[in-house]
Write a structure and sequence with these properties.
about 75% helix, transport, single chain
Length: about 325
């Protein structure tokens, strides 16, 4: 167990370093000059040179990377070109919005999909199994933006049950915040349920064919006891890994849903910053999202031995 944990921790550090190099290199390949964006095309050359020097852009690329990485490790992601705000507090503020939506959506999707997938596997090739598989396949085929637009049209415009656009923080009005969250959360739940159902079903079918399940049945245990007491733990291990991947992906890739529902989350901030060519914010968002993705998957790996007793080395 200890060696397993140390291996995962050791892999996280070089992964984050590689991600930092990629993010830094991608931003440097974008056409345009951040100094010109900050001061304008008609700025005085001496002012341009002074700002370039203060930002460290007059240094060689390797030195720029070392300086930027050192600042990022200390929590200084720079300042937004558009607003002048510090980048890290801006990212954390938007991340709280995205994290709330994603955590609720993934939690609800898992509560629905894992039992559904296991029951479908238990009744393999039955009408129930076919219905669950067909539903999961249908949900997998729906683009998130299209489903979100359908919800806006039906529940927002036609029925007028829910607000169409906007967002209210929970600290201001919890009731209004819940109303604004229903459609984004429902969109993500429906999309991700299909993925988790298929994984839970496949892993359960594999586990139900193992010898210890046959032995449990031979002892006279009921099918429900075999499924939930003996098969669940081993069957849930691969699904747990998938849930971690989904969680990391959504935290970094929720931009589509946030754009459809005009939610001021991290994904929307990244999209707006790309359009505004706000390089410090884009760079900070990419590094932050990559870091969150690595940390989430590290957390999943660290908990994996709880679900799979074979991981003990």
């Amino acid at each position: 167990m200890v060696r397993f944990l140390l291996q995962r921790l050791g892999m996280a550090v070089p992964t984050l370093l590689i991600v930092a190099v990629i993010v830094f290199g991608m931003i440097r390949l974008i056409p345009g000059d951040p100094v010109t964006l900050m001061l304008g095309d008609m700025a005085d050359p001496s002012s341009v040179a002074d700002l370039r020097r203060s930002l460290g852009l007059d240094q060689p690329i390797p030195l720029q990377f070392v300086y930027w990485l050192g600042q990022a490790l200390s929590g200084d992601f720079g300042h937004s070109i558009s607003t002048g705000q510090a980048v890290l507090p801006l990212i954390l503020d938007r991340f709280a919005v995205s994290a709330t939506i994603v955590l609720v959506a993934v939690g609800l999707a898992s509560l629905v999909a894992v039992p559904a997938g296991m029951i479908a596997a238990w009744r393999q090739d039955s009408a129930l199994d076919l219905a669950v598989v067909a539903s999961a396949t249908f949900l997998l085929s729906i683009p998130s933006f299209w489903l979100g637009l359908l919800m806006l049209l039906l529940f927002g415009l036609k029925l007028q049950w829910l607000p169409v656009i906007g967002y209210t923080p929970f600290g201001e009005d919890a009731g209004a915040a819940l109303l604004y969250m229903i459609m984004p959360v429902a969109t993500l739940v429906l999309i991700e349920t299909g993925v988790v159902v298929r994984m839970a079903r496949a892993s359960t079918i594999e586990v139900m064919r193992l010898e210890y399940i046959t032995h449990a049945r031979a002892k006279g245990l009921s099918e429900s006891a075999v499924l939930w007491r003996h098969a669940f733990r081993n069957a849930f291990a691969p699904t747990w890994t998938l849930i971690g991947l989904i969680l990391g992906n959504l935290l970094g890739g929720i931009a589509v849903v946030e754009t459809v529902f005009t939610i001021p989350g991290l994904g929307r901030l990244l999209v707006d910053s790309i359009y505004a060519r706000d390089y410090p914010v884009v760079q900070g968002c990419l590094l932050f999202v990559a870091g969150i993705y690595v940390l989430v998957n590290l957390f999943v790996d660290l908990l994996y031995p709880l679900f799979d007793p074979r991981v003990t080395a």
